[in-house]
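call fold(seq) -> tokens
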Amino acid sequence: MPLVTNLDYESGAEKRLIMIKGTELFVKALRAESVDTLFAYPGGQAIDLFDALYGIGDIEIIIPRHEQALIHAADGYARSTGKTGVCLVTSGPGASNLVTGIATANYDSVPLVCFTGQVPLGLLGNDAFQEVDIVGITNSICKYSVTVRKREDLGRIIKEAFYIARTGRPGPVVVDLPKDIQNGIGSDVYPDEVSMRGYKPSEGVHAGQLKKALSELKRAKKPLFLAGGGVNIAGANESMEKLVDITGIPVITTIMGKGAVPCGHSLYLGNIGIHGSYAANHAVNECDVLFSIGTRFNDRITGKISEFAPDAKIIHIDVDPASISKNIVVDIPIVADAKLAIDKMLEYVTPMKISKWTEQTMEWKQKYPVKMKECKGMSPETIIRYINENFDSPIVATDVGQNQLWTTQYFEPSGNRKLLTSGGLGTMGYGLPAAIGAKLGNPESTVIAISGDGGIQMNIQELATAMVYGLQVIIVILNNGYLGNVRQWQELFYGKRYSGTCLKYRKSCEKNCWKCAKGEEKCPKYIPDFIKLAESYEAHGIRIFKEEDIKKAFDYAMQFKDSPTIIECIIDSDANVFPMVPTGKGLSEIIMC
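ret:
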């Protein structure tokens, strides 16, 4: 390529600027950002980018079988490694297939940079083949989205994208790359630093607000810590445990915050929310100071807002100022990174004299444990507790539905034991591709995907991805023949009118039978046969019905070091997730069974 010589007037020296294509600068940018894994799918408006990536040895390019699975895999990679996940797809349907994954990552604060090919600038707005306004589509569901319109801005915009994605409250960023920008000739310079006037993430802790919060905490008779996903994202787990140890204050978590302190900690009461523990939900109702760190207070946590923590002063630490007082009006707001704030608190806190309160909370925990009632065959609780007891540091990715709720109740993440789940958006189809991304980022770890028979079918084609990249991913399918979470609501609140939830249903079934009055043995055969399906992908499969077969199934799966295995667990179709708080009710109106 041609060299352009300029004079540096300050030093008198000559500078040589190398002129390169936009696609070459794209590759240079990925290397500068230490990207080692790129989740990508080719297409017409991304073909030049793929050409520039051809033969590159230091960036592994992962080609899944669907773009939605691609971004979930990047998400699982990011959550499990702490790095930024990176995607590349073509325009039109390639870009629009990312939308669900972008929203999933946005709700759960996952750093992603999503590159989308785009038609040339001159065709924008002309309904060109495979043209969609992906920036307009994703504006409300990502942290930042932009179309590059000048070749000279390309390096700066990519640098800003990575910076925005991983700083402050992390999240997804979309960078749309028109084809003529990709092929345009310009400087090879990629910036070393970012300077953005309109984006200044919080980097400190407001000392005055923190002291005010600690004074309120010191006066409390029934204080309670609420740890959200922000604690895990900030890597503040050890600091959070120290804070609980020093103060002696009981702690509860959101689903995304589970693992913020070890699940076996004597002061840990469990998850809060509509499927939270009795002890956690009751403690919120009774506390006089609720000290929350890194949570958005969504409706699945609060229940009926007017009845949430009715007697408590609420302190809220969050890195995102927009999350504070958005759903629950708080008394003392503190905008700060969770780890910075907790570490600062550790300089001031002392043991609190609240033994009567802690004893009361422990009594609730012991009297009302989270435990499944007996059901036919094996219980999901037994399967998940087997994982706890037999794997030292597994990474567990869940789908969404009852499988997710049981996992968040019984799996015990801490340290290297990680839980990956779609908390905010509740995305079915997330579990398997997220597990694949986690395995790619953590090749030495045992990675387990827990899914229902409904959710697994939304991205089951990714068995091919696991096979071709030689990934040992254990896929546990909890098969109850239903879309179980909706079926549970239909059982409890809709007079057992099982509309649209029976996955054995065929056109030949009696109208509206859904659950045949003649008995389930008269129901049609389940489709697909997951074991035969696994074998068609040259993967492995085993079907079990009894608790005594759980060990045999996992032993079978562990022997295949470079391929996935399905463990299909046939569970009771009537098994439900309890405790449960009905929609629109307060946390005090908890149903135990």
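The radius of gyration is 26 Å.
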